[in-house]
Specification:
The complex is a heterodimer of chains A (487) and B (390).
Chain A lengths: L18 E2 L2 E7 L2 E6 L4 E5 H8 L8 H8 L3 E2 L6 H13 L8 E5 L3 E2 L10 E2 L10 H11 L6 E7 L7 H18 L2 E7 L7 H9 L2 E6 L4 H7 L7 H16 L4 E4 L10 H10 L4 E2 L9 H4 L8 H20 L5 E2 H11 L19 E4 L4 E3 L2 H8 L6 E4 L5 H5 L2 H8 L22 H8 L10 H19 L1 H13 L1
Chain B lengths: L9 E2 L1 H6 L2 E6 L6 H4 L3 E4 L11 E4 L8 H4 L2 E3 L12 E5 L4 E6 L5 E5 L22 H9 L9 E5 L8 H13 L4 E5 L8 H9 L5 E6 L5 H8 L4 H14 L3 E7 L2 H4 L2 H11 L5 E5 L6 H4 L1 H4 L7 H13 L4 E4 L23 E2 L16 E2 L19
Parallel strand pairs in B: 2-3, 3-4, 4-5, 8-9, 9-10, 10-11, 11-12, 12-13, 13-14
Antiparallel strand pairs in B: 1-5, 2-6, 6-7, 15-16
The chains are: A alpha/beta (487), B alpha/beta (390).
Chain lengths: 487, 390
């Protein structure tokens, strides 16, 4: 007998029937389907192969069999280590839950010199300080911040325009750094500002303490100024100047920008992206408009449906893909976060794409008056009179009381997409998140009926759109793989 | 370790009377007396022989005299002329053998722990033998305390080191005890670590710088099993990797590039990026055509220039996923230009050579070159590079 045996001898794949591991499927278009495994690995298959696999008839020597096997859709007489690997990937996905609450949002003040119609929370900028956070409230908030088990803590100052209460920012940064000498967390600070009132003193302080700047840039001047009115109608110019000054003072990568989509934005996808390219940003986050606060009151939210937003989104995405094909590295952040879930074993910490939801455990909001909310959206909901997601107040409640409150635990429990009707059998569940605040706001229920959910409609379309694009073009797949690993 | 067993070795009567031993060598005429009593002196110049050493080693081809005449001594053929200060050797007068265990000037010394193996890989360069070779462990345990404690790295190889079970753990512990500044690289097929107890024991040594190099040849179980000629090996190896990593042991994944598996190299890379993203290093390795590789050449040989595009795709997937990746044993001129930065000079100096075609190549000094053991088997694409591009 020879000392070596041929390849066939080792392949017992076809010796008996195969065992399917948990998998789901959905139609992509025509006869083409997407199948996904538990951990989010996917394959695109024609209906005939799908049927053959689903009915136990797929032959071991077919190419599809090998692809399904390598991606842990099945085990057979040859190998069953797929179960260990799926278990590992599931653990990896859920492990970060133990390190909860990395983002802590301090609402330094509700005052703002802008009067954006889509803003949910701001108040006129007069000299009254009743909408400012006090040092006493900030101190109590910091007590809670450092009780989170998260090894990384990011404190973000929001408003209103937080720079209008700069002394509070200085107080919080100083106090947090002092506490961190013992707490030893990976501590970072962000100021979310429109940059209109930015001074050199602000920049010097930000530079000294490595504070990141996050600002708003809605597009070219006419669109930006229409979205973001302020005295002098010069919001855009001030933002552009501020971005340049902040980059010089803090470093290029310490300045980020976010856009808000309004009805007026929908016809301007290309213009908006060009503005970001012109300003030398490495990417853009094409955001949907949230349904809260003034956005609903002023009819902005109802003024266009999800279909129109999706047209806007894909027009923008395709334009960005073209820019990349032409040699410019430029990223669309929403796509990148979804692609990270599709193409890598890692997860995103973007609250809207987390399951269980990121409410409370992804972020906590400390309002100017000490009220603690589970997310930025839930404080906006509160501005409309709905306090469902107000956990308590820093002056009255301790960390355990807040985090173990039924007001947080009940919606969290209902936010495991894998066990929610309409999601549990969805092929895209591994990519999706769960948004109990949105569904409560729009349907009065933490789970909601998915066929009526704009959140579901939007995400399903985005998942399909991304898969279709990378299945159709290897060059697009290469771009997407780069994005998935970049963020 | 240099696995030379010299033929014309002459021990003197005192050597035969005193028996075998493992010792550190010295060339230092000022060596303190307490150390001389346990060391061997390498005679460089017959006029200068320091007295008081336990043994005398001569490669000079001159007759022994003086102190070296009365003490146990051995005359070695000229090929041992490289022996120097700090080297460790084993002498066995009864069987007439001398083996060099450690060379201080070499950047990397490895120890073969056993010739036994539970795989039977198609391309094995060190074919396994089912022999009782437990004495090797004793010898290494004796040698480790003698090794220069500033050595940068040592390696354990086989055979399959984990077949030694508890004695393998004992060896890892000994390197940590006696070489607290030295990296330890272990080549294992990983299968025995599917037993979590062994994985936990290795981790429990808390070695300061340990890396396990474990081969994975395909994303498909049966292809891997075919290459290693062992049914069920894939599942055990993957479970072994998971167990080791769960206990915090660093892992290098090694894939030898050969015909049965190069076609699915991008799929293997994707499998690693998706399932074993925690790998500390991935080494994609050119064939060494010796041992079984020579016997199975028609099964495994593929000209490296013919898998260039698969190799490029695999490296791109791994790098994009943030996994440190290297290409070993490949000549720069055979690699696609964008892969050359990943190529390492991986072939040990004592078995590295170049071809006449390499004369005048501008990047020869950066190139891994060829295994002297591989004979004339090489890519048809070998051609000198006349630029600084690499």
């Amino acid at each position: 007998m020879s000392r070596f045996r041929e390849a066939e001898h080792f392949d017992s794949s076809g010796d008996g029937p195969y065992t399917m591991l948990p998998w789901r499927f959905t139609n992509l278009r025509d006869d083409q389907y997407v199948v996904t495994n538990m951990a989010g690995e996917y394959l695109s298959l024609p209906r005939e192969k799908l049927e053959s696999f689903a009915t136990g008839k797929l032959a071991a020597d077919e190419a599809t069999y090998a692809e399904l096997k390598a991606r842990h859709f099945l085990i057979d007489d040859d190998t069953n280590v797929a179960i260990d690997l799926l278990a590992l990937k599931t653990r990896t996905k859920l492990a970060p839950l133990a390190d909860f609450t990395g983002l802590h949002i301090f609402v330094a003040t509700l005052r703002c010199e802008h009067s954006c119609p889509y803003c949910q929370v701001s108040r006129a900028n007069d000299n009254r300080t009743e909408f400012d956070m006090s040092e006493a409230t900030a101190t109590k908030s910091l007590d809670l911040v450092f009780q989170s088990p998260s090894p990384a803590i990011k404190i973000e100052f929001q408003g209103g325009e937080p720079l209008l209460n700069f002394s509070l920012i200085k107080f919080v940064v100083g106090e947090a750094k002092k506490r961190n000498e013992a707490a030893r967390r990976d501590l970072a600070f962000v100021i979310a500002t429109n940059l209109a009132v930015l001074t050199d003193e602000h920049l010097e302080f930000a530079r000294e303490h490595d504070i990141l700047i996050s600002t708003s840039l809605d597009g070219p001047a006419d669109l930006h100024n229409r979205n973001r009115p302020r005295p002098g109608r010069d919001s855009h110019q001030r933002a552009i100047d501020g971005i340049k000054r902040a980059r010089s003072a803090l470093g290029f990568h310490h300045v980020g920008a976010l856009m808000t989509t309004t009805a007026a934005s929908l016809a301007r996808a290309k213009d908006i992206i060009d503005e970001y390219v012109h300003m030398d940003f490495g990417g853009i986050f094409l955001r949907p408009l949230s349904p809260y606060g003034f956005a609903i009151k002023t009819k902005f939210y109802q003024s266009y449906d999800q279909r129109r937003w999706l047209d806007f989104y894909f027009e923008g995405l395709d334009y960005i893909i073209d820019l990349n094909l032409g040699g410019l590295d430029f990223i669309e952040h929403y796509a990148a976060m979804v692609l990270k879930k599709m193409l890598t074993p890692s997860q995103t910490s973007y609250v809207d794409l987390m399951s269980p939801a990121g409410i409370g455990i992804g972020a906590l909001v400390y309002n100017y008056n000490g009220t603690v909310y589970v997310s930025d959206e839930s404080r906006m909901l509160a501005e409309m009179g709905d306090e469902t997601f107000a956990l308590g107040n820093v002056h009255d409640h301790g960390f355990a009381e807040l985090m173990l409150s039924e007001k947080l635990l009940e919606p969290l429990e209902k936010s495991f997409a894998a066990s929610v009707p309409g999601c549990s059998w969805c092929a895209f569940e591994p990519y999706c998140g769960s948004d109990p605040v949105f569904h409560h706001a729009t349907q009065g229920d933490f789970v909601g009926k998915k066929p009526l959910s704009a959140f579901c409609t939007r995400n399903m379309a985005v998942f399909r759109g991304l898969i279709e694009r990378m299945e159709a073009d290897e060059k697009v797949r290469a771009i997407f793989e780069r994005w998935a690993n970049l963020i | 370790m240099i696995p030379l067993r010299a033929r014309s070795i002459a021990f003197n009567d005192a050597a035969i009377a005193t028996g075998g031993r493992i010792m550190r060598l010295s060339t230092n005429l000022e060596r303190p007396a307490p150390l001389r009593r346990s060391e061997g002196f390498v005679i460089v110049d017959a006029e200068n022989i320091a007295p008081g050493f336990a043994w005398y080693i001569s490669c000079a081809g001159e007759a022994l005299k003086g102190a070296a005449l009365d003490a146990p001594s051995v005359e070695l053929p000229a090929e041992f002329g490289y022996l120097g200060d700090g080297d460790v050797i084993s002498v066995e007068p009864k069987s007439g053998t001398v083996r060099v265990l450690f060379r201080r000037v070499s950047a990397y010394n490895h120890f073969l722990l056993t010739e036994r193996c539970n795989n039977n890989c198609l391309m094995c360069s060190q074919p396994p033998r089912a022999v009782q070779d437990g004495w090797i462990v004793d010898e290494i345990l004796e040698a480790l305390p003698l090794i220069d404690r500033s050595a940068r790295e040592i390696g354990f190889t086989g055979g399959e080191p984990t077949l030694l079970g508890e004695r393998f753990i004992e060896l890892v512990r000994a390197t940590e005890s006696y070489l607290p500044n030295t990296s330890l690289h272990v080549l294992s097929n990983g299968r025995n670590f599917a037993n979590d107890r062994l994985a936990a024991s290795v981790a429990a040594v808390r070695h300061h710088d340990l890396m396990l190099g474990i081969p994975l040849y395909s994303d498909l179980a049966h292809l891997h099993d075919y290459v290693v000629q062992a049914d069920g090996a894939f599942d055990e190896t993957v479970r072994g990797i998971l167990n080791l990593k769960r206990h915090g042991v660093r892992i290098e994944i090694r894939a030898v590039l050969q015909r049965p598996t190069t076609e699915r190299l991008p799929q293997l890379a994707r499998f690693i990026a998706r399932n074993l993203l925690f790998a500390d290093h991935v080494a994609l390795m050119g064939l060494e055509v010796t041992g079984f590789a020579k016997a199975n050449l028609n099964r495994i040989w593929i000209d490296p220039v013919d898998y260039g595009s698969e190799l490029r795709a695999a490296v791109k997937i791994l790098m994009q996923a943030g996994i440190k990746t290297s290409i070993y044993n490949s000549q720069l001129c055979v690699l696609p230009e964008d892969l050359r930065p990943y190529a390492r000079r991986s072939i040990s100096d004592w078995k590295q050579e170049y071809l006449p075609a390499c004369d005048g190549c501008s990047v020869r000094a950066k190139c891994a070159g060829f295994f002297a053991t591989s004979g004339m088997k090489h890519s048809r694409a070998i051609t000198p590079i006349f630029s600084e591009a690499a």
